[in-house]
Amino acid sequence: MDNKVIQTIKDRRSIRAYKKDQLVPQETIEILKECALYSPTAQNKQEWHFSFIENPTLILEMEEYIVSEILKNANDAIKERMASINNKVVYDAPLLVVISVDRETLGYYGKLDAGIAAQNLCLAAESLGLNSVMLGMVAPLFKGDKSDHWKTIVKMPETHDFAIAVAIGYGAMEGIKKELDYSKISVVK
Predict the structure, then answer these.
(1) 3-state SS class at 136
(2) In sequence order, what are the beta bridge partners of 102?
(3) First-residue to last-residue Cα distance in the chain
(4) Where would a tag sit more exposed on the chain, N or C end, judged by fewer CB atoms within 10 A?
């Protein structure tokens, strides 16, 4: 089958290592912003917000804070997991998109809308020759004593809470090809 959309879906992998010295071109970031805004939402309410963080120094500062928060009360399994990924949660990606949702709708539909937007960003990135990974581990930025500080830094609306993030850049590794498990599908006729 010669279908670019389906091929993009099949080719996309979660990448957890990025080339530090290769920034995403500004015109590509503008396309990604547009693709984020094209994401469908429940009742077309569009109650999400996208914070495009393009400053690698700030991203590293955010990552260091996240890791310190994760390790504060971590058990041995979490410490081992963090060590196995070199205490990285953004993986040196030069672009981090934080998706937040109005806390009044952060329930089922808000989370669903944020997930759809994250997938739009990942597929758009793949189609533009970039790589991506969805991130939930960014959440510690927006909890605890410094949450207001970080929300201000990423220009998150006051009425919003973190939903999900997407790291985007040029991969420094090959993604793992997914083995399809058809036992996860039930057919009802």
Answers:
(1) coil
(2) 160
(3) 26
(4) C
> Which helix (DSSP H) or strand (DSSP E) does residue 36 occupy?
helix 26-37
Positive/negative CA dihedral, 152, 153, 156, 161: negative
Predicted confidence (pLDDT) per residue in 141-176, tens digit: 999 899 999 999 999 999 999 999 999 999 999 999
Query: Model's pTM, two decimal places?
Result: 0.94
Cα–Cα distance for residue pair 129/125, rounded to 1 Å: 6
Query: Tokens 């997407």, residue?
Result: 166
What is the set of domains in the chain, with CATH numbers?
4-184 (3.40.109.10)
pLDDT digits (tens, 9 = 90+) for 3-57: 999 999 999 999 999 998 899 999 999 999 999 999 999 989 999 999 999 999 9
Q: The tokens of 36 are what?
A: 């984020």
Q: Give CA–CA dist 141/154, Å, rounded.
A: 10
